[in-house]
Amino acid sequence: MDELKIKEGLKDFFCTNLGIESDALGYDTPLFSEGIGLDSIDSLEIIAYVDSTYGISMTGVGKDPFYNIDSITKYIVEHA
């Protein structure tokens, strides 16, 4: 899998579906409390997006894979 393509797709998802400003979101930007402030509802949307786009379930995984776009991408690549 092309990691850059995954990162770009995730960033587009965050900006389009979760209303995050593109300028505020880098691939290493923390997504939750200390970062851009996403919440548990947002994490459910991320899980649904990853499952429908990549066929990879993130249901029940710990919080570490959700830290930033880089960590979500790593999880996708490792479980593809």
Walkthrough of the structure:
With 80 residues, this protein is mainly alpha-helical. It has helices at residues 3-17, 40-54, 69-79. Helix 1 crosses helix 3. It starts with a helix and ends with a helix.
What fraction strand?
under 5%
Poorly predicted spans = none
Radius of gyration: 11 Å
Shape: globular
Task: Please tally the β strands and state the result.
Answer: 0
Alpha-beta classification: mainly alpha
Head-to-tail CA distance between termini? 8 Å
The count of helical stretches stands at 3
Q: Helix amount, in percent?
A: 40-55%
Largest sheet: none
Instruction: Give the SSE order as H and E letters.
Output: HHH
- The pLDDT mean sits at 95
Quick overview:
With 80 residues, the protein is mainly α. The chain has 3 helices and no strands. It has helices at 3-17, 40-54, 69-79.
Blueprint of the fold:
Layout: H1 3-17, H2 40-54, H3 69-79
Helix pairs in contact: 1-3
Features:
80 residues, 0% strand, globular, mainly alpha
